[in-house]
Specification:
The protein is α/β, with parallel strands linked by helices. It is 35% helix and 20% strand.
């Protein structure tokens, strides 16, 4: 671990070597992991990462990490504010600042024409121990609406446990949503809606639309994809960004966090996921027009 907090005082060779080790040991696809580790070491030996700042190193290493299979969860992330050393702490630290600045991840709850409610969840699907209370309040508030539009256009990911919690309000009965498979090919975890949710459910029968954009990513994509595959929601907007692999984070320098996918998602309906392809809308339109389009379609259904 590098001790300095200066963004320019860093041993790029040592940092890249630690990154290569972590990728090789943890990336969900072992063959690609070895290929990436070899690539990073070769590029380092060639001097490709010398005389750069922490921010520039993050950009260069991220480009190389994604050069083999385009996995958008593979990244070396630069943090302007020094981050904790504990595994996973860097992402949580940054996420907490977003949570506090976004009305706890529920920036919009509104009733539109025809009894159609809009609920925006952004900028993240925050960890459940933070988000359960505000989400319960928001989801209970929209429960009596005739129809619901769930806006994920500005959501860039987060916690799959929170995805299951949200789906518990939008589906009837306990439902299998997703399976995580480890790098050894074994089932690591299954995701199901909870048997009980606090507050009132919107339920599984009233019209539900989900708005997406090209920025919708990761856990937000899972929320849209799960509801689409179950036939529960109509997706309106743009194809999403295409990141399906759950990741872990390691601090490799006070300003640098390595993100490595450690499992892959398998949907029980499709048998696959949205990695690389994104969630494909049922109604394709520009993200800016998605709310108006969904509202028109929903009101027409209700009349």
């Amino acid at each position: 671990m590098i001790s300095t907090t200066s963004p320019r005082a860093l041993d790029a060779v040592a940092i890249v070597e630690s990154i290569a080790d972590l990728v090789c040991e943890n990336y969900v696809f072992p063959d690609a992991a070895r290929q990436l580790a070899d690539l990073l070491r070769r590029r380092s030996a060639e001097g490709s990462y010398r005389a750069v700042s922490a921010e520039e190193l993050a950009e260069a290493v991220t480009a190389d990490l994604r050069s083999v299979n385009g996995d958008l969860h593979l990244a070396l992330k630069y943090h302007a504010v020094p981050v904790p050393a504990e595994q996973g702490a860097a992402a949580l630290d940054a996420m907490r600042r977003e949570f506090d600045a976004s009305l706890c991840g529920v920036p919009r709850v509104e009733l539109l024409d025809g009894g159609v409610a809009v609920l925006e969840i952004a900028p993240k699907v925050f960890p459940l121990d933070w988000a359960a209370q505000p989400l319960t309040a928001a989801l209970s508030l929209v429960a009596p609406a005739r129809a619901l539009i769930l806006d994920l256009r500005r959501n860039t990911g987060g916690d799959p446990d929170t995805v299951a919690f949200i789906c518990g309000y939008l589906l009837d009965g306990r439902t299998h949503l997703n399976t995580m498979v480890s790098r050894q090919g074994k089932v690591a975890e299954q995701s199901w809606t909870p048997p009980f949710v606090p507050g009132a459910r919107f339920g599984g029968s009233k019209p539900l639309s989900v708005l997406t954009s090209g920025n919708t990513f990761s856990a937000a994509e899972e929320l849209a994809y799960d509801l689409q595959q179950l036939g529960r929601a109509e997706i309106v907007g743009e194809a999403t960004r295409g990141g399906a692999h759950p990741r872990e984070g390691w601090t490799v320098h006070p300003h640098l966090e390595l993100s490595v996918p450690v499992a892959r998602a398998v949907n029980p309906v499709s048998g696959t996921n949205w990695e690389g392809t994104g969630v494909q809308p049922d109604v394709l339109c520009d993200a800016e027009a998605a709310l108006d389009r969904a509202l028109r379609l929903t009101v027409a259904r209700l009349t």
